[in-house]
Amino acid sequence: MSCWLAEVNTSVRREVLGDHKPALTVVLAGIFDPRWLLEIEVIAAE
Q: So where are the chain's domains?
């Protein structure tokens, strides 16, 4: 399961960010129910 999720994640990041490579952490885990709404809030500072 996580293999295709990693590919989708990478594809979307490349599409949105292009060559810009920000510091990031991606955690792919099969511990959620697909019916859930998952919201993640992030604050970045320079």
A: 1-46
- For residue 45, how many other CB atoms are within 10 A of its CB? 3
Q: Which two tokens stand for residue 38?
A: 């998952």
Distances (CA, A) of 2 to 8, 16, 30, 33, 39: 10, 21, 7, 14, 19
Q: What is the pTM of this model?
A: 0.44
pLDDT in tens, 19-39: 888 777 777 677 777 788 777
**The token pair that represents 6 in the structure block:** 């990693």
Closest by Cα among 29, 21, 38, 23 to 2: 29
Contacts of 1 (CB under 8 A, 6+ apart): 30
